[in-house]
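Repro:
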Amino acid sequence: MFPGWIKSAFRGGKKEMQESFHEHLNFILSTAPTWDRMELEDNKYVLGEFLEFKGKQEDILPLRIIKRSKVSRLIIQKKIIMFGLAHSKLQVLYCPRDYRSARASASEWEEVTVGSSTEVVFQPQNSTKVHKFKISSITSLSLSA
């Protein structure tokens, strides 16, 4: 029995073990709950599901690229213009999703500018009610896979 186990370890046993590992991993990933995570300005976090952006057509158009399958994280920054005056636009930095690495470098972040009246439609975890958040009140948004 023992010599048979050693032979299988060097021959076909590796393939069977690998298939078993993949089956187990697929089971875990298919049953694990995933939530989007939104951080608000006052250091509050909301877990739930990002649904869409709402706002003026000229603000929504550049945000069409932001989809769960393409983007992993958004950071919203207030845009400052000359002489320190706040502008009514916000910079939305988004990181393209890369399944090969856990983090993206600063050079991979993309930027779009939108109006501060743009809203994020979000359904919080354990709630049947959909909420709208002004994009100006959001610091970051992490999208689940």
